[in-house]
Amino acid sequence: MKSSLVKARIIAPGSSVKELPAFQVAKAPTVHVLVADSGPLQSQLLTRALRARREFHVSPVDLNLSALDDFLHANPADVVLIAGSQLPDWGLLRWLRITHPKVAPVLLAETDDRELVVNALRVGAKGIFLFMHDPFHMLCKCIHSVFQGEIWINNQQMHYVMDALSVVPTLRVVNSTGRALLTPREEQVVALVSDGLSNREVAVELGLSEHTIKKYLLRIFDKVGISSRVELVLYAMSHGENRPAEWMPTSA
Hints:
Elements lengths: L9 E2 L10 H6 L3 E7 L2 H12 L4 E7 L2 H10 L4 E5 L6 H10 L4 E6 L4 H10 L3 E4 L5 H12 L3 E2 L2 H12 L3 E4 L10 H11 L4 H8 L3 H15 L4 H11 E4 L9
Parallel strand pairs: 1-7, 2-3, 2-4, 4-5, 5-6
Antiparallel strand pairs: 8-9
Helix pairs in contact: 5-7, 8-11, 9-10
């Protein structure tokens, strides 16, 4: 992630954030909050609690793409709180990011699950709030923070993100029957080439020589039945699937 894209500080829940005085809250702009929840009871309780705050204009909506799309085309929204008893729909979050980029989604999560945190931020969430652990007034601060363009994650979640950024990506390349064609190291080479890295840059990333990378590419070309980097990228786009990176010694 480029630092120039992060315009504001990351707020860690539990840190010392000053409560806004009453006169400042009264002058603050109204934040249009959308509560998208698959559970009607929880949605009603959360909506009622947030409506008690004068700075929020709160609306409930069913947690599905059709209901969200209808509402967002007819009404303003600044922050969308996404809750539910099941795992989030990553496609819905991705759709929100692409179709309504000015809306800040906040995932209301039960646990600090690493995979959930990384995936949520990867597809466009601007905040992850642990509603089973953190008090209600912190949720209000979370809403204000993401409304102002900040990211709301705690220290543990930040470590998850940093770990995810520090690993080398892999791309599982399969044939038409779903069988893996490449070794884990070869999959890493394909992932980095697909990201636009040169042979020299791939070598630096993996701690190998440029000559070794060229040998890997020739072996990959032979296995996949192609003859150029462009063909490899196109093949990876149509036959590849991302998966968690695997650490391998440089001799692999």
